[in-house]
Amino acid sequence: MLFQIYGDNAGWQLLGWLLVFAGLILANEIARRTKAGGIFCFLILPAALTVYFIAIYVGAASGAEWALNNPTYTHMNSWFHYAKLYAATAGCIGFMMLKYKWSIGKKEWFKIFPFLIVAINILIAVVSDFESGIRGAMALAEHGDRWWLSSENVWLYGGWWNWVNGIAGILNILCMTGWWGIYSSRDKKDMLWPDMTFCFIIAYDLWNFEYTYNNLPTHAWYCGLALLLAPTFANALWNKGGWIQNRANTLALWCMFAQVFPLFQDESRFTTISSVYTDGVMNAAVRPTSADPTMQGIIAILALAANVIVLAVIIKRAKEQKKNPYKQEIFTDQRDFKLAMARAEEQK
After folding, report:
1. Its pTM surpasses 0.90
2. Which of 75, 147, 265, 332 is the 20 to 30 A CA-CA neighbour of 258?
3. Residue range 315-331, pLDDT digits in tens
4. Inter-residue contact 287 to 183 (CB < 8 Å)
5. What's the rounded Cα separation, in Å, for the pair 256 and 44?
6. Cβ-contact 291, 278 below 8 angstroms
7. 148, β-bridge pairs
8. Domains of the chain: which residue ranges?
């Protein structure tokens, strides 16, 4: 089993997952359907939260109890969470600029922005995966096991799976094709990337889930499973071609929620930890005595295999079609691509 879901708390854990999954889908619809929704979610709300975050750290620096005991300060102080929040939010803003043709969003050269921001987000996670692999090796040399305590007081179990998944992440960047094939939908609700079909989405979801399972094992039930499935679900049923926009929107909004209300995942009846913790608990004050990295290894191999296969398919198609897969779209014969292009506005 991937997660420890059993006993009297299982019902609450499942309810929490459903609430997060449904909430993310609803929040994405609010953000994507109108300019007002997008402006509130990705300009006004992040600006207000930035003031809040600065106030917390200024207060903590001055020794204020309210700041030192604030859950955001005690549970979410890693560089990764802030980097992810602002990188995802920057992506959402850039996507709105392309969708509504604001300012440089009208320029042809700006169409490469989605590739760049997604690649940056992937690299942030890859660095974090490699860091965990290194820390795990250091812990093995010093303590005889691979457990290391993160800056957020979470015990992580670093090993070869981190390196394998980090390589999968790098390959995933190379699996993004048709960088310039960015369109606005005719109804102006979506920025479309039609060449980002189910092939890439599956490879990305496997890689990113393994990332969260390795490095955010106390959050992966939500930020891994629910957060990844919400945009994939929307893309599959009603928003063809809009997966990357769905992904950015839900990621940014989830990061904002998690940064302000970390106890939802960390210390509530909804808390769910991975099967890596064979002790059944994650207590920062007590070094775990054992671990089960089986699923870490299996998913890492699946993620690497999926990305190798997709990249091989891309290379094969590029040769057959005599195309540069990054300058030109190569999945034009797939149903996903055709349905996405049917939604796109006519190009002038």
Report:
1. yes
2. 147
3. 999 999 999 999 999 99
4. no
5. 12
6. yes
7. 156
8. 7-343
